[in-house]
Amino acid sequence: MLRVLFLSSLTILAISNAHALEPVEPQPAVPLTFTNPAYQKVVPAEALKMIKEGVVVIDVRNPIERLTEGYIKGSVNVPLSSLKSGAKLTAVPDFDQKVLVHCRSGVRAENAARILISTGYKHVYNMYGILQWPYKLENAILSK
Predict the structure, then answer these.
(1) Is 125 helix (H, G, I), strand (E, B) or coil?
(2) What is the reported pLDDT for 143?
(3) Does the N terminus or the C terminus of the chain have fewer Cβ atoms within 10 A?
(4) Residue 70: phi, psi to the nearest 5?
(5) What is the spatial distance between Cα 1 and Cα 39, in angstroms, rounded to a whole number?
């Protein structure tokens, strides 16, 4: 009985400390745990479809990262440090418009999504980051 209780305790501990893996490689630097009805994570293939349909892409990395690592053609650079709750994005003036957000690994994109949703945006998609993006990048000086 004591052995069963011990094993059950270990299982519960392991489950409570486990984080679901994301469907991308490499994994984001820290687990992405934000949940909200206005927020979704999308894999690169789905993000590419959305981009082809005209969805605005917001790159929340710093400008130097865009220059050294490259950027997705047509994306708009709005560094995470410049996002403020309540401030509408010029590139996305309609709160009902879909917005794709990315960074280097998905972590800053998730933080940006929180800010955008608190501002009133209703359709925010985290497309993870440049590290997981298998498609062409513009102006990539450094390789992945």
Answers:
(1) strand
(2) 54
(3) N
(4) 95, 175
(5) 45
